[in-house]
Structure to design on (1713 residues):
């Protein structure tokens, strides 16, 4: 083996790869025409894409934007292209898009004549849902993104009380007093614990706010209102509709289901048999039936289950049922987060002498929830999409509105444009959120 | 295992043992399901004593010290810590836990809190110390373990040895009278072991009552005033370190010592 | 504290209910239980009072009254004089029908799309991505409605088949008619039919079993038994000699010959759909409501399944493929023997929960007028009888039973395939 | 408290309407509800609260309408609902009158060449679920011993789409609904209504059993509209008539004489308000569904009894 | 890196090198995208040769041996294995793959199959060996790597060293004429490294042709009959181990050797 010994005297330079494997040609070769099957697939796909786009694009863009009724739309089409098929009549969106976005939310203050006369266009009350939405983004930003200033958490804390006031209107004292309930609970705990002991303190901290909310809030708020009146016009929930309604249901359901879901998840994780059984029973029951049956319960049964004479409107009832629905799913998401925490965290907390609730609040939940955020976002997307089901029980969400619009003599017979618009809006929302949750998942992966 | 890698002079004179009883364990038994993991344990620890617990894997060392601050429940016998009996009474448990600090093999720091927050959490919420005061104490102990400059970092940003020292500081912030260590150095690289052992020696010099599960025999020799050898859930032998290492009585101990000192 | 007396053996004090870990858990449980009972009692009490005021005490007698409405898509015989119970039963069967069909197609499409999304072919991968994102991010109800609309608008009405120069013609040698009312396919008919067995007499749950079908199934069973025997032998031969004998022809023969003979004996022929009057007559009719629902649910769920499949395949590390290739295995075999068995563990559990979702989503059938159980029991029956409480409860019960059964299967599977580890 | 007091206290009338049926109820681009049924709601609101705008319209589907009413979510339902025995007796609702005498009809494309419902053997029929028409249809085909295939559909809009695309040969519902639907077709003349009317469909507003006082208010509000047409009181001339006429019935109706309003628990001008809300019965009819509208329904049965129709109000006395 | 921790006598006499060519690589070039990862590689391996490939990280060692059984495609030049040229021809690839065994750094056992099934899978499906025979062969090789008793366990139940030995046995079951090893010991604990290296030495003693990417210089010294040093995608130096270690020619090699033998 004389050839064994070898020493390279000069290093070879880096060379360009053979032309066929780089650049556009190389890319196409590798990704599109790599073998016979692939080439055939590519060509078929290209043809398919061409036909779909051709039909879709001409329908979408060779369209009528200004018309007051379908008939007029058709006349314009016939005049322009000689046929009514293959062209969209976006005029209906032009005409009704405010309705599709806000439902019947009054564009003017709900009680005309207060300050603005009968002038309906004077002071768009749409700013209320809009402001709620912007505040919502501000409120969730500190939860979702690390880089946002922590001060925004104040918005997060205030939002649950501010949003109902903005949306439903009325006196500000109601939400303020409702928030005060938490303050009362806190004070009761702080002040009474030294006097009547820890247990008494806890009981008082729960009982007093409940009494406050059940019996006193209304009176006190009314009293304050009569002294210092700060109120904006009221809007009944009946007037809510369109995408505003979908978002509202989604946001309220997720917001309220989070605490319930946490409690359920903790219950399901606990070793207390009865508590666990109750939680598992609830979760599995809710997850075992379709949302639509729960909505039936909301629309036809909930009043039967509640004390005689209780009246609250269908939107609130739907909110309750959707919240329960979301809680069950949320509980499973949170449970996943809890399960992902190492046991050492519990032991670390125990060994420092933190009690169960302190450990949960200070150590376990902050970590578990962070892990669960992608799951929470997916649940939100699911609930948001599912809000369309409320159209089946007669609420005017975008789908429900599409029926109402088609029942208007002017737009009777319109079809694709409405659904395309609704689908598009849903897509934009959900796609955005799903991208965000993917980004989060990647971030979490890196972080561990 | 290696001899203690410290070069400083250890001042055994300061390590006074009083004759007040800090921990008393009487006829304690514990089962996992039907597996009898601790059998008839009797152990008295006086205040200021530094006890090293050794023994083969699975012999119940961790279980024993976890019982002392009630991370595990024992089924029979008594454990009395600082005059308080460990029973199912939550108040007693809380009391004992705030007097007994624990330091785990895997540190168990809270990754979502800064070092300082890790250290002030329990004083603020359990001891109800004002934040300011808690932070001062925390900084004091962080200085003691020589990482005050890391106070605002998160655990994930520290090395293993630093993390373990933070864990010790965290326990100390509760001003415990007794410290339990469960293999505090076994998850660490050799260089980091030294840092942690140094910190523990300092504690010992200040007269802290310590129970330490460890296989650092150098540490045992220089610091402990008693070594306890466990096997199969029982205390097989206990003695002063010199005696224990040079003149083990039981066969089991001899075998064990030959193994861990041998290689 | 040098001397320790015996610790005081405290007698039971009330505060121990809270501070003693042993009693505390009992206290909490008792409180939870009492709370739950009170809540339940409160609900039931409210319900009773309310129903009394409305004059509708809960009772299920209405189930035995004639329903009065017709159901077009049905698996058992039914007419408008049958009871509400039978209508519900038909609805339930319809739910199961669309759920089973949907699960099958969703799986096929989902697996295909999931695999194609990993394709090296850029454009195919991108098209699949667009498909998945499109379906995942738009509500399923919208898809159901759109699917129905597309079927209705794009397919020819039966009347288009009429006349000298029809605008539309039947497909597949005039055997299948695709119309906007659904698809008509040939139906199997027997001239020497063995008849039917009526079970459960005239009750609402009665059903017929075709003896022809039983005979057919028996023969088929025997054939399949034979085929498994042949394959077992082939396997045996493979294990002893290494070469696997070709079993294709034996299998085909075993499968088709006996059943063929039986069919000939029974006088099997196909009944072709034919345009008569307003509609096609003869043949089996799959209504467009069923097709639309089926299609939308399949495509929607398939988008989720595709992601699961993709994730499952990606979860199997690339090293596994390389190892198999280094051992000289071709890609098909690598997929079948190495990748799939591992991917399936990851895939199946979320897949089953998607089957569950599909089944639950099938309740949106009312949007296209497919008479599933929500459409019959929870729809028309509820509406015509005014028995909301009873119908909604029964409806939930039905779904709950289906869901829990599926969950049970899932748990069983999960336990079975757990990877063995240290 | 009775429903009347509730409504007054609330300052709003909750009125159930359909989620959308051309001519009967649908919201326009400003969210204002319009239509024949809507007119009834507004009349009642005007009578009770003096303001025709004080109505909260609650869209209901065929399925949710009865529960909404029974549970008290709505005070009255004006949703082209047929007065039937079981709805009255079993579901426990009081139909306070009839605002449209209807019957179930069939609509087919002209090109099918069908001239009678009896020729529909084997046809595919679009039908709205949860309605009386669904039951009638089953009965009709059963009693005539011919077969059909129902295509159940939730809403009118959906039904119309399926029918136009040829997914069903026939669309059947209340003849008024058929006419309303046909009116909006691109080419209405390509479709015919078959001569058979296979059922009686008296459509009217309804309230819950057990609150007769409220039932009376709704009933007489409707009757006021009818009587107003009979007596020639229109929204145009009501101003001067309210001042007093020499017809005592008009005076009683419009509150310038007697105390009918007080008896109902309303103020004296209640009927005047109701009529001013959208005009008298005839005006409502003409404005929403009559021959001058695209829907173009003839009065037919719904003419005043004086004109040979069935619209007949008991006297205001 | 540590010297080979074996105490057995290695019998170099058995390791005969014939002069039949097993692998011939001529002017081979490979690019990843536009990155020139292998440059003008020329290499002849005779049957029975044991070649160790060393070089800094990223120098293309893995890529080179992965090209030999076509886990990666080369863009220019020829690779001829056992007389068959590696081209896109599927048949050739299959043929070569069944003659070349490969052993990965991370073992890549199939976790869903038992050890025995792992070993019999390819013989049964690729070689069409009867199951019985395949199992016998498998047991034979498992005995050779000294873990026959683990045959019915799953990979997840074995230690890293055991897994790597199974991986070797699995390749051997295909009765390859050439074995490629890609850092087979770098994922293992020191004790386990020994087990695996012992197995490899045994293979070498039986005259198996081996290409091995490794930094176990002890192994190279004692077993290899040629060491190849790669850098930046090129073969910089090759020589017999003695020469290579004691008398490296190129500067690059010297630097590298000083680094890995230095510490
Ligand atoms: N939660 C548990 N359930 C059941 N058995 C347990 C549990 N925890 C520990 N064991 C068993 O109890 C015995 C003692 O465990 P322990 O952790 O106290 O041993 P150790 O002496 O600390 O060992 P090591 O040195 O490995 O940490 C072991 O046999 C272990 O398997
Ligand atoms: N799939 C790939 N695509 C692009 N570049 C790659 C790919 N695989 C490897 N490379 C690059 O090719 C070069 C050689 O990689 P290779 O894995 O062969 O190095 P190595 O010598 O085995 O290094 P190590 O000792 O770290 O395993 C590296 O620079 C690497 O970054
Ligand atoms: N079309 C409808 O919605 C109403 C139909 C019919 N008048 C009914 O009351 O049932
Ligand atoms: Mg331990
Ligand atoms: Mg490498």
């Amino acid at each position: 083996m004389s050839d064994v010994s070898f020493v390279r005297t000069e290093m070879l330079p880096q060379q360009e790869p053979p032309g066929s494997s780089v650049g556009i040609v190389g890319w196409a070769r590798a990704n599109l025409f790599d073998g016979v099957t692939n080439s055939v697939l590519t060509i078929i796909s290209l043809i398919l894409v061409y036909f779909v786009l051709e039909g879709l694009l001409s329908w979408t863009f060779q369209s009528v934007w200004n018309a007051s009724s379908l008939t007029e739309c058709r006349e314009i089409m016939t005049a322009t292209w000689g046929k009514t098929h293959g062209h969209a009549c976006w005029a209906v969106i032009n005409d009704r898009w405010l309705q599709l976005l806000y439902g019947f939310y009054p564009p003017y203050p709900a009680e005309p004549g207060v300050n603005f006369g009968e002038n309906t266009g004077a002071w768009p009350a749409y700013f209320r849902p809009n402001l709620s939405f912007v505040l919502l983004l501000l409120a969730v930003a500190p939860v979702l993104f690390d880089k946002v200033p922590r001060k925004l958490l104040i918005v997060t804390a205030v939002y649950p009380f501010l949003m109902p006031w903005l949306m439903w209107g009325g006196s500000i004292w109601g939400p303020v007093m409702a928030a005060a309930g938490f303050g009362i609970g806190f004070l009761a705990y702080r002040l009474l614990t030294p006097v009547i002991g820890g247990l008494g303190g806890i009981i008082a901290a729960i009982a007093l706010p409940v009494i406050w909310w059940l019996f006193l809030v209304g009176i006190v708020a009314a009293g304050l209102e009569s002294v210092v009146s700060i109120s904006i016009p009221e809007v009944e929930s009946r007037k809510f509709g369109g995408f505003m309604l979908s978002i509202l249901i989604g946001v309220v359901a997720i917001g309220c289901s989070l605490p319930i879901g946490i409690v359920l998840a903790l219950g399901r994780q606990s070793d207390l048999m009865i508590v666990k059984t109750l939680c598992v029973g609830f979760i599995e029951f809710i997850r075992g039936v379709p949302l639509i049956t729960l909505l039936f319960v909301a629309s036809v049964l909930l009043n039967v289950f509640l004390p005689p004479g209780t009246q609250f409107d269908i939107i609130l009832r739907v909110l309750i049922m959707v919240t329960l629905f979301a809680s069950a799913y949320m509980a499973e998401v949170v449970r996943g987060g809890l399960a992902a925490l190492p046991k050492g965290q519990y032991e670390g907390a125990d060994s420092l002498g933190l009690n169960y609730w302190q450990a949960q609040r200070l150590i376990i939940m902050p970590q578990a929830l962070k892990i669960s955020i992608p799951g929470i976002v997916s649940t939100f997307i699911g609930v948001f999409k599912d809000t369309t089901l409320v159209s089946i029980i007669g609420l005017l969400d975008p789908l429900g509105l599409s029926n109402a619009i088609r029942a208007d003599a002017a737009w009777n017979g319109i079809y694709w444009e409405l659904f395309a618009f609704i689908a598009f809006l849903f897509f934009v929302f959900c796609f955005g959120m799903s991208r965000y949750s993917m980004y989060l998942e990647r971030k979490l992966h890196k972080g561990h | 295992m290696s001899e203690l890698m410290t070069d400083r002079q250890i001042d055994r004179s300061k390590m006074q043992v009083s004759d007040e009883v800090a921990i008393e364990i009487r006829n304690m038994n514990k089962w996992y399901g039907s597996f009898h993991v601790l059998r008839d344990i009797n152990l008295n620890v006086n205040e200021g004593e530094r006890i090293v617990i050794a023994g083969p894997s699975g012999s119940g060392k961790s279980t024993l010290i976890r019982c002392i601050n009630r991370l595990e429940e024992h089924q029979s016998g008594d454990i009395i810590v600082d005059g308080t009996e460990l029973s199912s009474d939550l108040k007693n448990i809380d009391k004992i836990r705030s007097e007994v600090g624990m330091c785990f093999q895997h540190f168990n720091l809270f990754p979502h809190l800064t070092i300082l927050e890790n250290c002030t959490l329990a004083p603020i919420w359990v001891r109800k110390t004002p934040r300011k005061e808690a932070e001062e104490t925390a900084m004091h102990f962080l200085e003691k373990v020589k990482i005050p400059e890391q106070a605002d970092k998160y655990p994930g940003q520290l090395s293993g040895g630093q993390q373990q020292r933070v864990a010790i500081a965290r326990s100390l912030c509760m001003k415990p009278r007794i410290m339990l260590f469960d293999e505090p150095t076994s998850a660490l690289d050799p260089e980091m072991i030294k840092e942690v052992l140094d910190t523990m020696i300092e504690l010992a010099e200040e007269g802290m009552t310590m129970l330490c599960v460890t296989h650092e025999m150098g540490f045992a020799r220089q610091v402990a005033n008693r070594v306890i050898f466990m096997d199969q859930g029982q205390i097989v032998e206990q003695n002063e370190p010199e005696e224990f290492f040079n003149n083990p009585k039981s066969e089991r101990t001899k075998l064990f010592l030959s193994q861990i000192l041998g290689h | 504290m040098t001397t320790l007396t015996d610790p005081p053996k405290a007698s039971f004090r009330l505060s121990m209910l809270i501070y003693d870990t042993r009693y505390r858990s009992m206290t909490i449980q008792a409180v939870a239980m009492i709370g739950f009972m009170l809540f339940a009692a409160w609900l039931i009490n409210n319900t009773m009072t309310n129903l009394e005021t409305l004059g509708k005490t809960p009772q299920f007698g209405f189930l035995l009254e004639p329903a009065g409405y017709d159901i077009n898509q049905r698996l058992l015989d039914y007419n408008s004089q049958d009871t509400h119970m039978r209508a519900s039963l038909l609805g339930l069967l319809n739910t199961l029908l669309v759920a089973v069909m949907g699960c099958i197609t969703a799986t096929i499409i989902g697996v295909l799309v999931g695999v194609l999304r990993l394709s090296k072919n850029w454009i195919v991968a991108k098209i699949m991505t667009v498909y998945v994102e499109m379906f995942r991010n738009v509500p399923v109800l919208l898809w159901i409605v759109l699917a129905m609309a597309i079927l209705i608008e794009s397919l020819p009405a039966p009347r288009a088949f009429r006349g000298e120069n029809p605008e539309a013609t039947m497909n597949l040698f005039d055997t299948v008619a695709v119309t906007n009312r659904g698809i008509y396919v040939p139906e199997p008919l027997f001239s020497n039919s063995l008849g039917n067995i009526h079970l459960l007499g005239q009750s609402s749950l009665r059903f017929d079993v075709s003896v022809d079908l039983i005979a057919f199934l028996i023969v088929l069973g025997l054939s399949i038994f034979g085929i498994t025997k042949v394959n077992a032998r082939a396997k045996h031969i493979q294990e002893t000699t290494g070469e696997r004998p070709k079993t294709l022809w034996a299998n085909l023969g075993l499968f088709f010959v006996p059943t063929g003979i039986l069919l000939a004996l029974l006088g099997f022929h196909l009944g072709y759909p034919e345009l008569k009057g307003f509609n096609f007559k003869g043949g089996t009719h799959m209504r467009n409501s069923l097709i639309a629902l089926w299609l939308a649910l399949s495509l929607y769920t398939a988008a989720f399944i595709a992601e699961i499949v993709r994730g499952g395949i990606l979860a199997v590390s690339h090293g596994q493929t390389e190892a198999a290739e280094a051992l000289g295995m071709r890609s098909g075999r690598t997929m079948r023997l190495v990748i799939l068995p591992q991917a399936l563990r990851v895939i199946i559990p979320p897949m089953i929960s998607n089957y569950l979702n599909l089944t639950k989503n099938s309740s949106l059938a009312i949007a296209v007028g497919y008479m599933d159980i929500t459409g019959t029991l929870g729809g028309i029956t509820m509406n015509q009888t005014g028995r909301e409480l009873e119908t909604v409860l029964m409806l939930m019960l039905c779904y709950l039973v289906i869901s829990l059964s599926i969950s049970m299967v899932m748990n069983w599977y999960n336990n079975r395939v757990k990877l063995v580890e240290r | 408290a009775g429903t009347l007091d509730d409504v007054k206290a609330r300052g709003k009338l909750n009125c159930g309407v359909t989620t959308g049926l051309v001519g009967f109820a649908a919201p326009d681009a400003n969210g204002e509800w319009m239509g024949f049924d809507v007119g009834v709601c507004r009349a009642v609101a005007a009578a009770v609260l003096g303001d025709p705008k004080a109505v909260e319209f609650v869209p209901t589907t065929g399925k949710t309408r009865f529960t909404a009413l029974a549970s008290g979510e709505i005070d009255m339902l004006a949703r082209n609902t047929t007065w039937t025995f079981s709805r009255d007796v079993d579901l426990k609702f009081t139909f306070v009158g009839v605002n449209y005498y209807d019957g179930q009809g069939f609509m087919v494309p002209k090109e099918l060449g069908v001239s009678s419902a009896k020729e529909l053997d084997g046809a595919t029929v679009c039908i709205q679920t949860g309605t009386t028409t669904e039951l009638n249809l089953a009965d009709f085909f059963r009693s005539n011993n011919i077969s059909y295939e129902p295509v159940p559909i939730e809403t009118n809009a959906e039904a119309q789409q399926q029918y136009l695309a040829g997914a069903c040969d026939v669309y059947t519902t209340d003849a008024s609904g058929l006419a309303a639907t046909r009116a909006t077709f691109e080419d209405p003349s390509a479709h015919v209504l078959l001569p058979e009317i296979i059922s009686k469909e008296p459509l009217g507003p309804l309230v819950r059993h057990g609150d007769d006082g409220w039932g009376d208010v709704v009933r007489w509000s409707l009757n006021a509209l009818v009587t107003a047409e009979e007596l020639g009181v229109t929204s145009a001339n009501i101003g001067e008539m309210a001042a007093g006429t020499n017809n005592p019935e008009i005076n009683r109706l419009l509150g310038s004489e007697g105390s009918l309003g007080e008896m109902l628990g309303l103020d004296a001008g209640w009927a005047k308000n109701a009529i001013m809300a959208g005009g008298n019965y005839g005006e409502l009819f003409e404005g929403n569904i009559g021959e001058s509208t695209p829907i173009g329904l003839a009065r037919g049965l719904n003419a005043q009894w004086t004109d040979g129709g069935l619209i007949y109000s008991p006297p205001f006395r």
About this structure: Chains E and B do not touch (no CB pair under 8 Å). The two ends of chain E are 7 Å apart (CA to CA). Chain E is about 35% helix and 25% strand. The longest helix of chain E spans residues 190-205.
